[in-house]
Every structure is written in structure tokens, then in C-alpha cells.
Backbone:
């Protein structure tokens, strides 16, 4: 079995492609079950966020084309189009890729912490579905340790930089002081919660939280002094808001062009700033064609984000050193699995010999032999039994001129010249 990681992200695919191959939580479980059921992979974890969809697999190398073809058919996207945006990593490169993703080094925002929680969630689902076993369990748990070490030993997370932070900063650039403005937050996940925190800290005047589950909306709204509504109530309140930040798991748009057009008329064309962080998108993309609307997707935030990365770049260099060291550590563990079977065979042979010789020594004592004679017999016979095969092989190696085997034996048995 080999380790492969393949997928696409914000660097290799535009949002139009990423949203086509995104897995909703419900489809994620279905996909894991299908991959294992069809025996396309022996182990698999699927990580799907707004910025990336990646599959981490334990499989045979010759099954890679089949699993990529499965991904194409599963999402009904042309294979040639999909592969134009895919990257593939194997073995140590796959390990390093996951470590960098977990540390936020492969994110749109360098060092952002949200991705680690998303990885943990993806891994947890795979564990529950039974699609992650020895290899991926060790890999993902190791990635969590690496991410913790990087955050502890570097300043990678010292600056408040995230998609949510960038969205709030852009709102400030458009409106200036936010104290006289109202924001509508659609969704109640981690990104929206972070946006709410940044808005609250920047003295936002009023906050409305809309969510499919009203109770979750109320919890978030209460924390930041906001007002909770359902998704169905959004058109009623849309004209009241100046800022809209949306991030849900909906597979269809939450805000239509008609909804926004109606709100703009009521607002008498006062500008409205919108950030659609979701993939697939929550806001109809044609809304950007309307006057007095500033609509940004996650890709549009990249320029704003770049201005906030300076303090993290040096920390990223230190993080790379930690990651390289941990790749070596993980690969050492993985490579050691190859000799486990050999070690078990050696131990079984030794245990079989020990049992046979101990039984003979006991019979000697039962037949009246001195215990000292029995112990001497046991030690002498066991030593000869264990050493016979290695010594015979070494003699043959010397005869054949296999100095490499002789050197390996000296290292294996820790032998030094006296």
C-alpha cells in the first residue's frame, strides 16, 4: 500500500471549478462509503472546504487513475477539465503536503487556524465511517501534533489574519466607521463566528444573524448582542443591512438577484457590501452586476489578504524546518512497518526454540540431573540454536565476497573490534 494525496485548491482551480467538486457533509459520508465499498482505496479521508477538495488515500499505485476517474464521475465534471486543475503527491510528498495544510502554510491566508479544525472534522468523519485505519490514523494524528508544535514554536498565528478578518477590514475600507451600520451574517459556523467577533470588536452598530437552525443563530447573536432570524426571513430584513457576510453549506444560493434588487430599491440605492465566503456560493454571482452593490467572493479577498501576511512570512520559514524534520520522523515510522513481520518471525522462531529447550532441561531435572547441569545445557543449546543460522549465512557471505552483509551483521548485532 502506498500513500497518495490528490485534489485541487485555490491556487490550482478557480471558484467555479472548486464548487463543482465540493462535498457537502452528507455527500462526504456517502462518498467515503462508496470508495471503500468499491475497493478503490484501502483507506481514505476526504477534506473538502471552500478553498480545497483533497483525498488522502492508502492504495495501490495502479488504482490512482480509477479513483480520479471516480471523482470525475461522482461530481459529473469532465475528466480532462478536472485533471487540468489536480495536483498529486505520493509518499513523503503527501505527508509533507498534509503537514503544510494543517499548519496553514498552504492556505489562502498564511497560517490561518481554521483549516486545522476542518481537517480534524474530516478525519473524525472518516474514523466513524471506518475508512481510516493504521496509516491514515497515524498520519492525521501526527499532523495535529505538527500543527501544535508550529503554533507553539513560531509566530505563524500571531497576527489576526483570516478570511473573516479580511472581509471586515474591506468593509471598513468601504464604510469607514462601522458604528452606524448594520451587518447581516448568514450561517453560524466557525468563519461566520469569527467575522462576528471582528465586527463586534470594531464597534459594529447592529448585527443580524440568519441561520437554518434558529437556535444556533440565537446562540451566536446573543454572544455579540445581535438579533437572530431564519433564512426565510432574510428578504424581510435585507434592506436594513449595509454589510452581508455569508458562509453556509447550502448547495443552492441563499440570496437571489431579485431579493437584492428589491432591497436596493427600498434602500434608495445606498451601497451594500457583500462577501460570499461559501463554496458553493450563497449569493447569486449576477448580483455583482447591480449598481450600488460591492460583491466579493473568497477569491476576491486575496489582494486584501496579501497586505496582512508580512509578519508571518519569516515564521513560515521556521515552520518549514519543523515540517521537514517531522516528515523524516513519520517516514521512519512508516518504513519500520516493513520489518515488523520479519521481527515477529524472528521472535516466533526464538520462542519455539526456547520452549523446546526449556522443556528438555526440565526433563533432565525430573530424571535426576543436577539443576546446574540443566541450566548449563539450556544456555549452551539455546545459544547454539539461535546463532547457527546467522553464523552459517555469514560464512556463506564471506565465501561469496558479500562484505555488505558482513558489515550489516556487525551493525545489526552492535559488534566492535576489541
Residues:
Amino acid at each position: 500500500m502506498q500513500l497518495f494525496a490528490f485534489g485541487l485548491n485555490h491556487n490550482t482551480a478557480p471558484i467555479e471549478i472548486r464548487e463543482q467538486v465540493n462535498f457537502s457533509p452528507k455527500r462526504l459520508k456517502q462518498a467515503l462509503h462508496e470508495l471503500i465499498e468499491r475497493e478503490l482505496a484501502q483507506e481514505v479521508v476526504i477534506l473538502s472546504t471552500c478553498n480545497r477538495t483533497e483525498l488522502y488515500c492508502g492504495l495501490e499505485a495502479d488504482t490512482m487513475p480509477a479513483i480520479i476517474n471516480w471523482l470525475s464521475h461522482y461530481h459529473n465534471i469532465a475528466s480532462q477539465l478536472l485533471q487540468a486543475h489536480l495536483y498529486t503527491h505520493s509518499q513523503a510528498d503527501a505527508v509533507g503536503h498534509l503537514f503544510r495544510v494543517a499548519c496553514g502554510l498552504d492556505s489562502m491566508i498564511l497560517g490561518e487556524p481554521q483549516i486545522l479544525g476542518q481537517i480534524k472534522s474530516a478525519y473524525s468523519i472518516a474514523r466513524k465511517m471506518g475508512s481510516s485505519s493504521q496509516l491514515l490514523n497515524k498520519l492525521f494524528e501526527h499532523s495535529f501534533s505538527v500543527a501544535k508544535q508550529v503554533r507553539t514554536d513560531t509566530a505563524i498565528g500571531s497576527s489576526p489574519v483570516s478570511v473573516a478578518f479580511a472581509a471586515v477590514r474591506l468593509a471598513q475600507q468601504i464604510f469607514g466607521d462601522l458604528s452606524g451600520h448594520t451587518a447581516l451574517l448568514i450561517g453560524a459556523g466557525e468563519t461566520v463566528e469569527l467575522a462576528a467577533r471582528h465586527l463586534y470588536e470594531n464597534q459594529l452598530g447592529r448585527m443580524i444573524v440568519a441561520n437554518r437552525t434558529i437556535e444556533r443563530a440565537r446562540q451566536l447573536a446573543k454572544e455579540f448582542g445581535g438579533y437572530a432570524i431564519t433564512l426565510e426571513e432574510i428578504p424581510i430584513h435585507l434592506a436594513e443591512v449595509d454589510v452581508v457576510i455569508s458562509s453556509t453549506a447550502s448547495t443552492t444560493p441563499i440570496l437571489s438577484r431579485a431579493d437584492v434588487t428589491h432591497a436596493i430599491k427600498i434602500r434608495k440605492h445606498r451601497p451594500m457590501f457583500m462577501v460570499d465566503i461559501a463554496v458553493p456560493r450563497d449569493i447569486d454571482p449576477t448580483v455583482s452586476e447591480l449598481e450600488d452593490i460591492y460583491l466579493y467572493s473568497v477569491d476576491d479577498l486575496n489582494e486584501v489578504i496579501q497586505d496582512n501576511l508580512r509578519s508571518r512570512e519569516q515564521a513560515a520559514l521556521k515552520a518549514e524546518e519543523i515540517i521537514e524534520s517531522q516528515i523524516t520522523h513519520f517516514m521512519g515510522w512508516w518504513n519500520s512497518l516493513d520489518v515488523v513481520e520479519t521481527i515477529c518471525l524472528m521472535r516466533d522462531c526464538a520462542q519455539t526454540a526456547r520452549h523446546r529447550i526449556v522443556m528438555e532441561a526440565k526433563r533432565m531435572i525430573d530424571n535426576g540431573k543436577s539443576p546446574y547441569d540443566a541450566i548449563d545445557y539450556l544456555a549452551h543449546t539455546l545459544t547454539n540454536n539461535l546463532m547457527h543460522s546467522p553464523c552459517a549465512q555469514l560464512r556463506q557471505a564471506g565465501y561469496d565476497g558479500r562484505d555488505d552483509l558482513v558489515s550489516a551483521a556487525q551493525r545489526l548485532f552492535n559488534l566492535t573490534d576489541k
